[in-house]
C-alpha cells in the first residue's frame, strides 16, 4: 500500500527516533539524532508528497521525550541534565520550565515525561523517582514518589523510570498510571494512596530481563502492553491477574533503540514497527499477525495513529556507522538509509473492523 503522504527531511548522519501527534491531529512531532525537534503541520486535503519540518527546535543535548499538550499547540520536551520545557509548536518559544533536584542538589534528568489525561499534571521519570508537576505552576514538583525505599533495598521499582502511560479517562481514575524501568520491571501506581503503594510489579519482561522501553494501556484499561530493549516480543498483561502475561506478539527488535507501538482506538489491532523495515498489524481478537502491508528501507522506530481519522504516521532510520565513516572521508552530506516520516492511509483496514 502506497503512503497517502510522505514527509521527508534528510540530514547528515542522523535518524528519526520517535513520532508524536497533537491532540487534534493537526501537527506531528519528530525527534532525531541531530537533537532537533521537528514539527510538521499536516494538511490532509492537499496531495503533498514531500516537505521539511515547518518548525525546528534545536537542543544542545539529546532529546529524551516530546509529548504534545492535550488541549493546545504545545509540546513537552525533556533533555539530559536540563529542565523539562513546554514549547509552543507554532513559534518555538519556551512557555514554561519544570525541574527537580536530587539529595545532592543536582538537577535530575527526565528519562521519561508525560502529561496526564486531563493535561493539568506532568509526570517525570528519573532514577528511582517519579516527580509530579502542576502545569499551571512552573518550577518545582508538587509531589515526589520514590519507587524504591533506598539503593540497597530490593523492594519497589529499581533503576531508571524509562516510560510512563495513563489509561483513558473513561476506563480508570486520572490518579492511576503505569511505569516501566530499565531494570526490567513494570508497575502500576495509584497516587491517591498516601503510601504511594506499588500495586503490581513484574521483575522480568517475558523472561529475558531486559530494560522496558514502552508501556501502554489498552483502551478498555484492563490490559497493559509492554516492549523492551532487544526483545522480539510485545507482552500483554491482564491487570486482574498479573501472575503471567496473557499473550505475547512477536516482532523483530535487535537494537537498544526504543521501538514504539500503538493500539488502535477500537482495540482491534496492535501496530508496531520492526527492525527489518516492516510495519506489523497484530489482530488482537484473533491473536495472530496480519500480513505487513507497509515497508521501509530501514529500521521503523515508532508509529502513531491520528485521533479522529484512519491515518497512521511512522518514522524510520538508525545510525549506520559504516556509512558515517565513508561519508566523513568523502565529505558528503546525506547518510545512506531511509530517515523519513511517512503518513499512511489505513481506511481499508479500519473499514474491516
Automatic annotation (TrEMBL):
Superkingdom classification of source: Eukaryota
InterPro entries assigned to the protein according to its UniProt record, in alphabetical order: SWT21/TCAB1_mRNA_Telomere, WD40/YVTN_repeat-like_dom_sf, WD40_repeat_dom_sf, WD40_rpt
SUPFAM superfamilies: WD40 repeat-like
PANTHER family per the UniProt record, alphabetical: TELOMERASE CAJAL BODY PROTEIN 1
Full protein name: Uncharacterized protein
